[in-house]
Amino acid sequence: MRVNKRRPVYQGGVFHRPCLPAGGHRFASCFPPIMATYFTIAQQVLSAFNANGASLNATGSANATTTPSPPNLSDFSSIVAFLFSFGALTDWLKLIVFGGALEMLRRFAFSTYGKLISSFWITASFHEDDSSYEWMMVWLSKRSSFQSAREVEVSTRSFGLNSNALIVPGESSEDDLSVLSGRRIAYLPSPALSYSLWYHRRFMTVTRVQTQTGYYGQKEETLQVNILTRSHRVLNELLLEAKKEYMSASEHSISIYVSDTNNSWRNVASRPKRNLSSIILDPGVAELLVDDARDFLESKSWYAARGIPFRRGYLLYGAPGSGKTSIISSIAGELALDVYIVSLSRVGLDDAALSELISDLPGTKMHLPHGRHRLRLLPKPQPRRTIQTHRRPERTSHPRRRAPPPPPTIITGAPTSRITLSGLLNALDGVAAQEGRILYATTNKYTSLDPALCRPGRMDIHVEFKLASKYQARRLFNQFYLPFDEKEAEKNKEKREKEKQSGKEEAPADDADDSGYNSADENAELEVASKLALAPENASDSKPAYFGTSHREHAPKLRPKQIAVLAERFAEAIPDREMSMAALQGYLMTHKIRPYEAVRAAKEWVASEREAKAKRERAQAAKVLAEAEAAAAAAAKEKEEKEKESQDSETPKTEA
Ligand SMILES: Nc1ncnc2c1ncn2[C@@H]1O[C@H](COP(=O)(O)OP(=O)(O)OP(=O)(O)O)[C@@H](O)[C@H]1O
Questions:
Q1: Residue 164 C-alpha to ligand 1 middle, in angstroms?
Q2: I need a labelling partner for 311 at 20 to 30 A (CA). Which of 65, 225, 341, 382 fits?
Q3: Which of 466, 442, 446 is nearest to 319 (CA)?
Q4: How many domains does the chain have?
C-alpha cells in the first residue's frame, strides 16, 4: 500500500497523529502564561497519542507506515500544509464547500420564489383589538365555505354585535332562545389552519395566527388574509363589504367601550338601540339634544374655520330616574355613535392616566351615515374632589370574546378616586384633549357643581330633567299598554289551539284570558274590567299573590282610543312633578296586564308613595337631628372639659 507521507494513516481504528516538535516549548513561551499551560497540556496529550500509535505500529501492523513530518509551529504555511496532509480533512472541506454552495442555491431559489409569489399576492393582517378584525370575522362567519368545511371553530361570540349567537342551525325558529337572540352560531376558521376561498373570482387564503403574549398564558390573535391579486382595489372592496355587513348587523345596537386596567379601551358589549320616542321628556327637550348633537357632528369645518375646538359638552341634571342616562344611549343609537365610559374609581386611574385615556379616544375621522362617531359618557360630576362614578365589573379574561352583556350601571361614590377636579378639567379640554368628541355629564346635584366644570366650552348646554309631569305620565301609560294587535292575537290563538290539541296545557278561553273586555261603552268597560281584575275568582291559586306581572299573560284587548281614555285617567291620578318617571314605570310594571287596575289603584299608590316618602324624610330628619344633637352634646362636653382644664390650670397659679 502506497502511503502518502504527508497524510495521517488510519490503522487499526486509530489515527496516528504526528507529534509536536520539540521547538513547541520555545513557541509556547511566546504566549501568555495561560496559553502556555494549554499548549503544554495539548502537547502531553499528543505525546500520549504518539506513544500509543507507536506501540500499535510495533505490535499490530505489518505494513509499517511513516507519519507526516511534524510542522514547524512558527511557520503558518507549514501548519496549513500539515493540516492538508490529512486526507479526510480535504474531503471534509470539499464536502463543506459543496454543501454550502448547494444550501446557498436552495435559499436563493426559495427566497426568489417567495418574492415572485408574494408579488402576486396581497397579505393583510387584522389584529383582534382592531375593529376591522370584527368586520372580517363577521364577514367570514357568513361565508358558505365554512358551512361545509371539515374543520371549523364553532363560535357564539358576538364580535361587538348585539348579542351572542345562540341558534344552532336546524333549531326551530319558534324556540324561545331564537326569539331572544335572533342570531345563529357561527362557523369560523380554526386557529392555525389555513383555509382557501374565492372572493370575486380571486383566490384567497385565511389563517388565524395565535401568539402567546407571555402573561398567564394569554394569547393574541391575528387574522391573516392573502389574496391572489396585485391590486389593492380588491382588498379595499373586501374591507368595504365586510364593514357594510358588520354595520348592517350592528345597525340596531350601540357599542359600549370601557377603560380597562391597562388604561386602554375595550369593547365590552353592544346594547340594542333604544328608540328615541320611548324616552318621554317635556316637549322639545329630546329634539333639542338630538338636533344639536347632529348639527355639531356635521359642522367640523365650521369649527376649524373659526379655530374653535371641535368639542361639545352637555350637562344633564335633575331628579334621579328622570331619563338622563336613557336619553344618552338613545342619542348614541340615533346618531350611530359609540359610547365610551370612564370609570373614575378604577384602580390606578389618576389624573395622568385619565388624560392619556381621553387623548386615546378615536377621533371623528369617518362621516355619517356609514361611519361611527364617538360619544363619551362621563360619570356624574360631583362637588369639588368627590366625583361619583359609574362602576363596572373588572374584566379578568379577554373582554371582547367572552364578555357577557354588562349589568345595569351602578352608581357609587368613589372614596378611592385619585382624580382631582383640575385633572378632570385638563382631561376634558386640556392640550391633550381629543377633538370631535361629545361629552355628556349627568348629575343629581346641579347646585353643588364647581362653576369651572359647567362653563361654556366644557358644558355648552345644560338641560334640566324634572320629575314627571301629567303629560309625561299620560304618554308613559299610552306607551306601556300598546293597542291590541289583531295579527299578534291571531298568532297567539293558533298557538294556544295547537297546545290545547297536543294536550300540553289547558288553554284559557279567548275571552277569559283578556279579562273579558269587549264592550263599546268605555266607562262601563272600565268599571267591569276593574271588577273583573279585582274579583277573587280571577286570581287563581296558581297565580302569585302579587299578580299581573307575568309577560306570558295577556293584557286586555284595548283599542287606541280606549287606552287614551285610561291614560288620561291615570294622568289625573298622578300629581304633577312629584313622582319620577322611573317610579311610574316601576308602578306600571306591577300591573303589566292590568291597565284598569293600574288606573284604579294609582291614587292609592300615590298616597302610599307620599307616606313612604314622608317616612323617609322623617327618618332622615330624625337622623340629622340626632347627629346635630350628638354633635352639640360633644361640643358642650368638650367646652366643659376645656373650662375645667382652664380652671385647673388657673388654681395652682393663684396658690402660687
Ligand atoms: N323620561 C323617561 N321616559 C321613559 N322612561 C324613563 C324616563 N325616565 C326614566 N325612565 C325609565 O326609568 C329608568 C331609569 O332611567 P335613567 O337611568 O335614564 O334615569 P337617570 O335620570 O339617569 O337616573 P339617575 O340620575 O338616578 O342615574 C329607565 O329604565 C327608564 O326606562
A1: 26
A2: 382
A3: 466
A4: 4
Q: Which atom of ligand 1 is nearest to the CA of 468?
A: 1
* Of 276, 380, 375, 277, nearest in space to 319 by CA: 380
Return the residue whose CA atom lies nearest to atom 14 of ligand 1: 321
d(CA 566, CA 564): 5
Residue 582 Cα to ligand 1 midpoint, Å, equals 5
- Whether 410 and 420 have beta carbons less than 8 Å apart is answered as no
Same domain, 278 and 302: yes
From CA 177, how far away is CA 175, in angstroms rounded? 6
Cα separation, 412 vs 390, in Å, equals 7
- The closest residue, in CA terms, to atom 16 on ligand 1 is 323
Q: For ligand 1, is residue 380 a contact (CB within 6 Å)? A: no
Does some domain include residue 2? no
**Looking at residue 28, what is its pLDDT?**
44
- pLDDT tens digit sequence for 75-128: 788 877 777 777 777 788 889 999 999 999 999 999 998 888 878 889 999 998
Residue 381 Cβ inside 6 Å of ligand 1? The answer reads: no
- Determine what percent of the chain is predicted with pLDDT higher than 70: 65
| Beta-carbon count within 10 A of 365 CB | 9
Residue that the C-alpha cell 324556540 belongs to: 175
For helices 351-359 and 421-429, give the axis angle rounded to 10 degrees: 20
Q: How far apart are CA 164 and CA 156, in angstroms?
A: 5
Dmax over Cα atoms in the chain, in whole Å? 136
- Residues 515-526: tens digit of each pLDDT: 334 444 445 545
Give me the CATH number covering residue 436. 3.40.50.300
Local structure of residue 418 (DSSP, 8 states): B
Which pTM does this prediction carry? 0.60
Range of the domain at 542: 473-600
Question: Which ligand 1 atom is nearest residue 472's CA?
Answer: 1
Comparing C-alpha atoms, which of 104, 141, 350, 109 is closest to residue 245? 141
436 lines ligand 1 (CB under 6 A): no
CB-based contacts of 540, cutoff 8 Å, min separation 6: none
Q: Is 323 in the pocket of ligand 1 (CB under 6 A)?
A: yes
**pLDDT digits 0-9 by tens, 360-372:** 776 543 322 333 4
Q: Is 279 in the pocket of ligand 1 (CB under 6 A)?
A: yes
Q: Give yes or no for a contact between 27 and 72, defined as CB atoms under 8 angstroms apart.
A: no
Ligand 1 lined by 478 (C-beta under 6 Å):
no
Residue nearest to atom 20 of ligand 1 (CA): 321
On whether both 478 and 527 belong to a single domain, the answer is yes
Indicate the SS3 state at residue 138. Answer: helix
Q: Is 274 near ligand 1, meaning CB less than 6 Å away?
A: no
